[in-house]
Structures are given as C-alpha cells and as structure tokens.
Amino acid sequence: MLAIKPRHWLASIRANTVDIIVGLSLLVFMSQSGSMQFRLIWTLVYAGWLIVLKRRSDQSGVALQALTAQILGLSALFIHWGDKPLLALVALGWFICYMSARHFFSAFEDPLNRYLSSIWGYFAASIIWVLTHLLMFYGFMAVPTLFLSVVAFGLGGVYYLEKTDRLSAMIRRQVLFIMIIVVIILLAGLVRHGYILKSQQ
Q: In this structure, is residue 163 part of a structural domain?
C-alpha cells in the first residue's frame, strides 16, 4: 500500500480499507481464541481471503468482499469492544459499514456511490445505537451484526440483480419477504430476551 509516492498513500489506504478491516478482524479472532487449533483455522480463513476472494475483481467478487468485511468487522467489534462506550461502537460501526458499502458500490461505477454509502453508514450507525442497548449474541455474532448482515445481503442482492438486468418482480418480493421474516425473528428474540431480563430484575 505504501510502496508509492507519499501523496498517494491516503488514496491507497482508502482503496485497501476492506482488506485492512478483514485482517484486523481475523487478528482479533486469533487473539480471542483459546487454542492453537482455532488460531490455525483463522489463519487458513485469512489465507483463503488473500488467495481466493481478494484476487477477484468481478462484481460478484467485490460484493462478497464487501459483505465479508462488514460481517467480520462488526463481529470483531462487538466481541472485543462490546463493553466500550456506545459512541465508540457507533462510530466504529459506521466506519466499517460505510467503507464496506463504498467498496461494494465501486464495482458498479455508480455516480451515487458516496451518497449511497453514506446512507448505509448512517443507517448502520442508527441500528447499532438502538440494538446495542441490549446486546445479545447468537453464537459469536451479536444481534446488530446479524441484523445488518441480513439487510445488507437482501438489499445488496436486489441492487446487484437490478444492475445485471436479472431482477424480476417475483425475485424482488421473495428476497424482501425472506429478509423481513429473518429481521422479525431477530427482533422477536431480542424483545423476548429483554423481557426475561426485566422480569428477573
């Protein structure tokens, strides 16, 4: 990234932000792993990222890179810094989602790239602000991570199919219906969990 003239460093770092997010996230997972076996697994995951996924430059490959960076970045954020001040979580979550969205939209050369990325970043920050007040995990993934991953996959899939002229009204309805159902299930579990905690108090 830095093997260029200093005036190009900022642009180079911005272009490689998704790779940095993935690398730091996997480093967090390795540091949190209690055994060498899990660290080896995360090392293999990173090797797969570098050898297979990062090398892809087609639209579907870039979309997978963006989604991977957002999922891993948010997962690492809540696993390692879940107890940090809310404003810090919101700011870091916004950064991860904004840069992932910007990477996604860059594959389509959309003139509204920065505008759409900002919308997604602010939406993600709002969701994190609301859902982190009662932080709950499904496995190693926090509810905000799952919620934003489902919405990103649904909306990103619809956008991708639209740009590649493969989106029909039926597919749009199916994707949005599945996305809404999953989100409702996640929110219902969160509300139920909150009710249980309240009743125990």
A: yes
